[in-house]
Request: fold
Amino acid sequence: MPAPPVVRPSYVRPALAPNGEPWPAVTGYIHGYQELHTDGLSSVRVDNSQNDSDVFAKLVEQERLAVRVFFIRAREQFTVANVRDGSYDIRYKDLDSGVISKSEAFDLKAILVGDRIQYSQMQLTLYKVRGGNIRMETISEEEF
Reply:
C-alpha cells in the first residue's frame, strides 16, 4: 500500500513577532533588536505602499548580519536612516503569504566632493508582482 501523500499545513500569520511580542501597531523598528551600523549618513527607504500585506523586514549587511529589523504596515513606507557605508540587502517576509524575499545587493556610501559630503539615499519598492525597482528572489526561512 503506498504511503499517503505528505500534506503541508498552509501558512498562518503568526500572532507574535519573533521577539515574542505582538506585531507593532505602527510601522517602525521592532523592539528588542539591536540597531547596528548607525554611524553613517546614508538611508534606505523601503516602500510597501503598493501592497496590502504587512512585512517583517531586515537590512542585512553582506556578511549576513542583520543591522536593522523593522515592521512595515501594508500601504506604508519606512526609512532606515544613518546607515554606515557598506554593502547590504533587504530581506522581508510577507506576513499574509509567508513568502520570504531578498533584494539584490546594493552599496551605500558617503564621499567627500569638494567641501560637501554626498551620501546614498536608496529607495526600494516592494512589489508582489514583477516590476519593482530592484530584483528580488525568494529565499528560505534559514536564509532570512
Q: What stands out?
A: The chain has a mean pLDDT of 89.
